[in-house]
Design goal:
homodimer, about 325 residues, 12 helices
Chain lengths: ~325, ~325
């Protein structure tokens, strides 16, 4: 089986690659080839023959070349993030909308040349939703994004569904919760603090909390993100019908609940490293974000996420900190 | 005030033009110029200076030229219909998606050159919805189109909202009910019979009913369609927030209720002209269509439609048959 990951050098792409290499198989089929694509050439894994390439879907000919490789499963994770898509309107539409549409269309054209219908797994986002919200967002709640990024993701979901309905590929979209604990350095994403207030204190470093601790949000671990992708790549898509994109399970928790879990796992000294510095801009942005979901369809289809922040923190300790606190 | 209608030669565009010319004003402001655009040159109305042009939004330079005319209000009605968009995948996306995006982008570019923020009224469709449905589709029900046409309309709605949020224009989308009684000759649209079974017998002609008379659907008259457009062009868009497209009011009625209204207005001899010829294909297509809505937001914003099929039939008699049955 040949698997392609577009956006393979990102955090989720890297973890997905590691997992595929460790498993050596997907859905019971041996993986005999990986194609790893990103704007910066992804590192070559060992253990499975891999083609690594630096390529941008919006460069002429790239999407045709990728589709021409006829992978059995294509994970399309590539996107520019919310903040960048908001700051640069043209670039956001070019990368996040046109890039995806080029890929979908190249797959269709490849299939018109010779029968081809790969599984396409597309990572969407809860940014397709915009306030005001019900207490829990249901599987039939409308998409009213409040960012250009969310708009682009919502449009790609519609294209994914139509191309799948037409039989051009077998697509599935997954709206990832906010990934927590996100490894690496603090970044300037408005959502960064959700991870920062756990990751930094767990390593003895200070972190800033810019919102009230009553803020509620929707989380899943990086490990769950990889599990979501593997499950999306292998499940029977027939029960999806024409509703090809799913709200995924996650954990709805307040910042206070995050902090209590941190206290239980790492003690008061870790909690003391969190400095409260209210930021009106971030508070306003976060107020427009989803807080809770009722993802019945995804649960029925076998998707699972964490049920406590203790568990999410432990996954970070196991996967990023070698199993113990420093 | 300068008003542009793109898609001015179609049924709704023609009636809208006639109404604007008859009123001579929109929202209390005198109309001093009309620009009427369609792929076939629209007929020039008398009474208001009008520029009529044959133009296609997907031809290079056309959208820039139209935006450069800096109309105060742009009605964008142009589209290819559902059946054609389904039969010709490329043409559907080109005309219905790219054409609209070109227009939106040209307006943005015009505004970047010199401040410009026209009202843009976009006609969307209840084809953005796909079964299974609740009894009444609420204002927050998700878009899961089951046709490429519905997909294209849903995508344009998302673009409309994002371009409006960014301040590139002041957009409003309206999801028109099925227009009934649609004047003219019977056509091959799957929805054609809803009008055929009234219009033809009202003129002494036979008509075919291809579905069970229990089929329920969502209707409004051509006169309401024009009223919707005028109201959308003039209402205060501030209460829309970032939810720029509305489900409109309409009349939910079964085919049997249509036929009973026909009997009351035109007698049994008219009803006898309806020949029942079940068609499995049409029955299957229609089963995926919306039947009823709860369009609270549009009603609160002042949109109104008919409340009985007697009224819808009378409008047809008044507007198309000179006020009396032949």
């Amino acid at each position: 089986m040949h698997i392609m990951i577009i956006g393979a050098a990102g955090m989720v792409g890297t973890k997905l690659t590691q997992r595929l290499v460790a498993d050596g198989a997907l859905g019971g089929k041996t993986i005999d080839r990986l194609t790893l694509v990103d704007v910066n050439e992804p590192a070559a894994p060992s253990g499975i023959p891999a083609t690594c390439m630096a390529a941008d879907l919006t460069t002429a000919g790239v999407s045709d070349r990728l589709a021409g490789l006829r992978a059995d499963v294509i994970f399309h994770l590539a996107a520019i993030v919310s903040g960048e898509a908001e700051a640069d309107f043209d670039k956001g539409y070019l990368i996040n909308l046109d890039g995806t549409r080029f890929l979908f269309e190249s797959i269709r054209q490849e299939g018109l040349r010779e029968s081809y219908c790969p599984r396409v797994v597309f990572t969407s986002s809860i940014a397709v939703f915009g306030a005001p919200f019900p207490d829990k967002i249901s599987d039939t709640f409308h998409n009213t994004p409040q960012t250009s990024y969310g708009t682009q993701k919502a449009i790609c979901e519609l294209l994914l569904a139509d191309y799948s309905r037409r039989g051009f590929f077998d697509g599935i979209g997954i709206r990832l919760p906010t990934i927590n604990v996100r490894p690496g350095k603090p970044n300037k994403a408005a959502s960064g603090f959700f991870s920062n207030i756990l990751r930094e204190p767990l390593s003895g470093q200070p972190a800033v909390l810019p919102v009230a601790d009553t803020v509620r949000h929707w989380h899943a671990s990086p490990r769950s993100a990889v599990e979501f992708l593997l499950h999306a790549a292998t499940l029977d898509t027939a029960p999806l019908g024409q509703r090809r994109t799913l709200n995924l399970p996650g954990l709805s928790a307040t910042v206070a609940e995050q902090i209590e879990a941190l206290r239980r796992v790492a003690g008061q000294k870790a909690v003391d490293l969190i400095k409260v510095e209210p930021d009106d801009t971030i508070t306003r942005i976060v107020a427009g974000w989803p807080q809770n979901f009722d993802p019945q369809r995804a649960i029925e289809l076998g998707f699972r996420a964490e049920s406590s922040f203790d568990e999410i923190i432990q996954i970070h300790i196991d996967d990023e900190l070698g199993g113990k606190l420093p």
